[in-house]
Design a protein that fits this description.
Two copies of one chain form a homodimer. Chain A has two helices and eight strands, in the order ββαββββββα. Chain A is mainly beta. Chains A and B meet through strand 1, strand 2, strand 5 and strand 7 of A and strand 1, strand 2, strand 5 and strand 7 of B.
Chain lengths: 125, 125
């Protein structure tokens, strides 16, 4: 059983990363077939960066890798759910545990996420 | 604060539906701007069906609607997280609580999800 990459736009399957302990949804990213195979082989989340157009070994710069606990495919085989242990405690490049740190409100939004690190200190570009 | 529909392929933003009580990831679907606005207005999840090319009022056939508890956008404003109460207990058209009922194993896969209903009894087509 493999995801059906051919079915997805540009061969990229959306991947939901979920914290295996807390159940928090951390982020959505994409995998092509090569990144999926590397994820299986290494036990660490490897995505495909649509902006940089290359494999994205999550955490290769920040050290905040995602150790894969388990992998699920959905009924249509066109979405992946990864349960992960997020090293460093933050999945988001803005320093929050989860990329979904903004809750929509009738007025606008509120920050509900927990900031774990200051991006300026982690990413030296 | 709104999702950035213009940024997404065909104006469709991926939406992760998560059970607000259990934290289970239920499904991934897509919203266009009209479905997002109807979701906000009605408090029920309305998606855009890419296969049927029209608004998909989740549960309109099965009665298994999703009551929206809260809505989150990610750092890039190109993914939505919906926390929902899944009426009927099953989000998947195959009768499972979650569409992610198959866990990948080294051999193949195993069914780990809980089947709540028999699709043949719910969908009379």
């Amino acid at each position: 059983m493999r995801p059906d990459f051919a079915k997805c736009v540009d061969g990229l399957v959306p991947v939901i990363a979920q914290d295996v302990q807390s159940g928090d949804v951390l982020m959505l990213a994409y995998m092509n077939e090569a990144s999926y195979d590397e994820t299986l082989a290494t036990g660490r989340a490897v995505y495909y960066s649509r902006s940089r157009k290359k494999l994205w070994r999550k955490g290769e710069e920040s050290g905040h890798v995602q150790k894969v606990d388990s992998i699920y495919v959905d009924c249509d085989r066109d979405t992946i759910l990864l349960k992960v242990e997020q090293i460093g405690g933050a999945a988001c490049h803005e320093g929050y545990k989860s990329c979904f740190f903004r809750k929509i409100t009738p007025e606008d939004f509120e920050i509900v996420g927990e900031r774990v690190f200051d991006p300026k200190e982690v990413y030296q570009s």
